[in-house]
Write a structure and sequence with these properties.
The complex is a heterodimer. Chain A is mainly beta. Helix content of chain A is 0%, strand content 50%. Chain A contains no helices and nine strands. In chain A, 35% of the residues are buried. Chain B has strands spanning 32-36, 44-52, 55-62, 69-70, 74-81, 90-98, 102-111, 114-123, 132-139. Classes of the chains: A mainly beta, B mainly beta. Chains A and B meet through strand 5, strand 6, strand 7, strand 8 and strand 9 of A and strand 5, strand 6, strand 7, strand 8 and strand 9 of B.
Chain lengths: 136, 142
């Protein structure tokens, strides 16, 4: 078994399925003054997870549409979702979203890369989201 | 000349994104050799970041029982990091390490003198290992 760090040298096993139930739901940005993503909705469709993203705009929220998520565990032997990754291609820009669960919070890294001639620098944002649970 | 910019969120219109100084803002905070704060880590033992011309090169060594494992060198993409805590604006880096059996997509940033790396590891072999995400912390040794 090839490995790049000793933690990846584990007992061989059949492909593990990752339980992604903990990612499903609506995630709200903890910062009400965000200039980025306001909320994300993770849904399961035919066994796969999709993400719908709503971001802040000058006048109203902007719907980015849906993207399919790639789910990640917390270790090579993990069977529980600890994060996800997805990509949006807007034509003039591409955005990579990388989410990581930490103590119930979703820490979302956004990497924005512009493909137009605006000379805007690629940039990174890290924000926190909480799952809307509706209990209180 | 005014240019109408495409955007998908308000931060796409941030004026600092067209300021050339933003591209290298506090980049020196990243440069140098970094050692994992966890002495018995089973992940990444050390990271070395170099700035050569317009490029940032990231060298990683993974933990092993005997000799550390050198990862393939990666040229990092420089990212403006505009919204760090307490207004600590500085660049961040995104680097992808490609192995024949695995890809590690990473982003690196400095927060209060600590280098933080987050890795999204995707296995491309038939080992059955789960793709996983992890985060590690590094300091500058004297």
């Amino acid at each position: 078994m090839k490995f790049a760090q000793i933690c990846d040298l584990v007992d061989s096993a059949a492909a593990r399925e990752i339980d992604h139930a903990g990612l499903v739901g609506t995630w709200l940005n903890s910062n009400p003054d965000t200039t980025g993503i306001a909320r994300m909705s993770v849904q399961e469709v035919d066994g796969k997870l999709t993400l719908q993203t709503l971001a802040t705009g000058p006048d109203a929220l902007i719907d980015w549409g849906t993207a399919e998520l790639q789910v990640y565990g917390s270790s090579p032997t993990s069977t529980t979702a600890a994060g996800f990754e997805c990509r949006y291609d807007f034509g003039f820009a591409e955005t990579l979203l990388q989410g990581m669960l930490l103590k119930g919070l979703m820490v979302l890294a956004q990497i924005h890369t512009f493909k137009d001639d605006s000379n805007r620098i690629p940039f990174f944002v890290r924000e926190y989201f909480a799952l809307e649970h509706g209990r209180f | 000349m005014n240019q109408t910019l495409d955007f998908k969120q308000n931060s796409h219109l941030e004026p600092a994104l067209t300021d050339p100084a933003t591209r290298t803002l506090n980049a020196d905070q990243l440069i140098g050799r970094w050692v994992n704060t966890k002495s018995d880590t089973k992940g990444i033992s050390e990271i070395c970041i170099k700035h050569e011309g317009d490029e940032f090169l990231v060298n990683v060594k993974g933990a092993n029982n005997d000799q550390l494992i050198s990862w393939p060198k990666a040229q990092a993409k420089v990212l403006a990091n505009l919204e760090e805590e307490a207004g600590q604006r500085a660049v961040a880096l995104a680097a992808t390490f490609n192995f024949d059996f695995m890809t590690a997509e990473t982003y690196l940033r400095v927060n209060k003198g600590v280098l933080v790396i987050v890795l999204f590891n995707t296995f491309r072999d038939d080992s059955g290992r789960s793709n996983y995400v992890t985060r590690e912390f590094f300091y500058r040794p004297r």
